[in-house]
Amino acid sequence: MAFLELKNVEKTFFSKDSLNEAIRNISFSVMEGEFISIIGPSGCGKTTLLSLISGLVLPTTGKILLDGKEIQRPSPETGYMLQQDYLFPWLTIEENITIGLKTMGNLTETTRKRALLLLKQLGLADHAAKYPNQLSGGMRQRAALVRMLSTGPKLLLLDEPFSALDYQTKLKLEDLVFSTIKEHKKTAILVTHDIGEALVMSDRVILLSHSPGSIQRIFSIPEELKALIPFAARNHSAYNKWFQEVWKELESLERKA
């Protein structure tokens, strides 16, 4: 059985004077431990899709099932990582990474030590007592990743988490996030505008059409790329071929717009 299932999901936003059909007839399944990326033209409903999967927004029609249960509200089983880190500036890094546990009533000495171990694994052990403004952008995003992982979610939703970073930091963080997610055997969905990022981090890439977003095509990434960390995958001989194939499909959508 699929870990995550979307069945004929549609979302229309209504206002007093208008309606906006954001996504139309989206159906796909994600297996446990799989990494999926969603790409597409601006305004095609990528972030709306993540909001629906998170339970922050409910579908107008269709169903979304996580581990066989319909998603009807936000759940601790799902973690969300955004472009902005949204660390609380008045809290230390340790306080920031454990705030989810505290809010859920799950902050114990055991869970605190687990969160600090994650912080150490991501190279931030010496920064636990510092405040967010004392860290670089990449370090803050690593802290945000620890905060998300510390609550033990089954599903990770990543909404362009690297787009605000400089290119070198972005490449390093891609490798780190990819390796951490694989090590902890998490299921993840990434929304990105970066074709290369989608290719080197994913098992499959879902391309959405123009608004209202629907599935244009699903690309299954070959094993020789999936077996590599992102930086190495970008330098593999198969990378350019796949990049061009996805690029051409995306360009065909732009010409039809």
From TrEMBL:
Gene3D superfamilies: P-loop containing nucleotide triphosphate hydrolases (3.40.50.300). Residues 4-235 form the ABC transporter domain. It comes from the Bacteria. One of its GO terms (molecular function) is ATP binding. Pfam families: ABC_tran. CDD domains: ABC_NrtD_SsuB_transporters. Keywords: ATP-binding, Nucleotide-binding, Transport. The keyword Transport applies. This is NitT/TauT family transport system ATP-binding protein. It comes from Evansella caseinilytica.
